Amino acid sequence: MSISEADVAEVTRQLGRPARDILEIAARCVCGRPLVVKTNPRLADGTPFPTLYYLTQPAVTAAVSTLEATGLMAQLQERLALEPDLQAQYQAAHESYLAEREAILDVEETKNFSAGGMPERVKCLHALVGHSLAKGRGVNPIGDIALENLSWSPDHCSCQ
């Protein structure tokens, strides 16, 4: 997916701060505005940035924050311990994430570290939902489950 000056301006507006080191818009709202950006694995100032997919749209970000507050992360963490198939799918999501990021740039400081707690923990639903929105359903099972439980839907515009 491409990125324009208007996209960068919209992401800046969404975040309330200057957008940094965006490689592309990884997912868009049905209205066309950015939902998720794909970010360079090393920022221009040299800082490693392991979160390849970054959620930017305020309504989905708020909905994910609300979902995190419900205790869903702890429930998903328990499921990972009890469900070998879910654990294997989450491991595959982690490996796919690493491969994609390393194909852009191999950053030694983040080697084997993906995002959202993958592959053993459920740490940040924002990163996991961003991954699911960017790659589509079926890639990140925890992100997919979180998407199913959100009060927000990618099928309806909630941009401001």
Q: What is the strand tally? A: 3
* SSE order: HEEEHHHHH
The biggest beta sheet reads: 3 strands, antiparallel
Shape descriptor reads globular
Residues in helices, as a percent range: 40-55%
What is the count of DSSP helices, taking H or I runs of 4+ residues?
6
Uncertain spans, ≥5 residues at pLDDT below 50?
none
Question: What is the first-to-last residue Cα distance?
Answer: 22 Å
Sheet-strand content, in percent, reads: 5-15%
The order of strands across the largest sheet is 1-2-3
Oligomer: single chain
Estimated radius of gyration: 15 Å
Mean pLDDT: 96
List keywords for this structure.
160 residues, mainly alpha, three-stranded antiparallel β-sheet, 10% strand, globular
Would you mind describing this structure in some detail?
Helices cover 47% and strands 10% of the residues. The protein has 160 residues and is mainly alpha-helical. Helix 3 (72-82) packs across helix 4 and helix 5 packs across helix 6 (141-149).
Write the layout of secondary structure elements.
Elements: H1 5-15, E1 22-28, E2 34-39, E3 53-55, H2 58-69, H3 72-82, H4 84-104, H5 125-135, H6 141-149
Antiparallel strand pairs: 1-2, 2-3
